[in-house]
Design a protein that fits this description.
about 100 residues; eight-stranded mixed β-sheet; alpha+beta
Length: about 100
């Protein structure tokens, strides 16, 4: 499965990236979700509340049950950075759809 998302790097530049989606996990210490992809030197971080994370996981599960080949984050901004890099960004509410 693939994921398409609007990303912001450490300079604030926005771009859309399409990656192989391997999974998502929540890091309570940083109150952020981390999207795992095929990229080994950087990760995709989304500051969010635990409740919003659970909503995002349900949306991803729905897309998987529908046999989507790609999930698209239509609402929300993803921070792209080096492994272990966390940014101070406002919490995001995601809207995820499967296609």
């Amino acid at each position: 499965m693939y994921i398409s998302m609007q990303c912001s790097d450490n300079t604030g530049m926005l771009n859309t990236e399409i990656c192989t989606f391997y999974g998502i996990r929540y890091v309570p210490r940083f109150r952020s979700a981390v999207i795992s992809t095929e990229h080994l030197n950087h990760e995709y971080v989304i500051p969010m509340t635990p409740q919003d994370y659970e909503v995002a996981v349900k949306q991803i599960n729905e897309a998987m049950r529908a046999h989507a080949t790609m999930i698209i984050i239509e609402q929300g901004l993803v921070c792209r950075g080096r492994k272990g890099e966390i940014r101070n960004v406002e919490a995001q509410k995601l809207k995820i759809v499967g296609v």
